[in-house]
Amino acid sequence: MQDQPSSAPALFRYDDDTQVRVVTIDGEPWFVLADLAGALGITATGRLAARLDEGVRQTHTLHTAGGTQSMTIVSEPGMYEVILRSDKPEAVTFRRWLTGTVLPEIRRTGSYNVAPALEGPELIAAALIESQKIIEAREQQIALLSAPAKSWQLLADASGDFSVAEAAKILSRDPSITTGRDRLFAYMAEAKWIFRSRNHRGGWEAYQTAVDTRRLVEKPAKPFLNSKTGAYELPAPTIRVTAKGIGKLHELMGGTEPIRFITGEESA
Predict the structure, then answer these.
(1) Is pLDDT above 80 for 50?
(2) Where does the Bro-N domain start and stop, copy by copy (predicted)?
(3) First-to-final CA distance of the chain
(4) Which of 74, 90, 95, 193 stands the most exposed, by the fewest C-beta atoms within 10 Å?
(5) Residue among 111, 1, 10, 110 nearest 63 (CA)
């Protein structure tokens, strides 16, 4: 993909030795690949970039201490793929910081803000305000939990399965979840529900555990004739998410608001 124009990245500090630069493009966060690789102990950044699909990486011009530089950046799905390639035990903690702290803050404010240090009366006042926010948040959570999640129970009891795109739309009915087809594929890969097949041109396949627990099903694909080789080839199966799988994803992705399951008859 062609180099994007220069813009000022947001700087996120993970610890004293690790920082990550993020650029927002068309409302979506893109991470500087070199920063992710450094945090995860991956040294061969160029080789790592070459292994990523073009759809999740591009080059972007950034202002650095050494001047303007063209750097590789990756999308949110690309970020998940990079993390999955790290063998460091700290990769899980790093991913949780990105997905649980940085991404929600970016989507809420468009930047990552660190509150300045407060002292004396200002600290007490800030503590009181924060305490009230916590109390209100807990009251809202109690209200949600006290009203049984009939919609998700109905969803769990429903039959049939859904495409990944359809599952993403159902999950996105909960305002606390922001996802789409590609993001959901990346999330399920990180959760070890699916993996890239070596036998089907890199298409997605489901882990047997995800099938055995009835969270995913695979629909066999029809063989096709390869015009170059003259041989029939079998594409990767189509991944489908069951109602039970959507319910589990809603739980894992931190869903907070019950969403009524809309059947085909109701949506007609």
Answers:
(1) yes
(2) 1-110
(3) 41
(4) 90
(5) 10
Half-sphere exposure of 258 (CA within 13 A, CB side): 18
- Spatial contact of 69 and 32, defined as CB atoms under 8 Å apart: no
Six-digit token string for 14: 């993970």
User: Which residue, 78, 54, 82, 58, is CA-closest to 70?
Assistant: 58
Element (H, E) at 162: strand 161-163
State if pTM tops 0.70: no
Q: Which tokens hold the place of 216?
A: 């995913």
DSSP codes joined into one string, 223-268: PEE-TTT-SEE-PPPEEEEEHHHHHHHHHHTT--S--PPPPHHHH-
**Torsion angle of C-alpha atoms 139, 143, 146, 148, degrees rounded to 10:** -140
Q: Would you state the pLDDT for residue 101? A: 79
Angle at which helices 164-171 and 243-252 cross, to 10°: 50
Tens digits of residue pLDDT in 100-152: 878 877 777 655 444 444 445 554 555 555 556 555 665 665 555 444 444 44
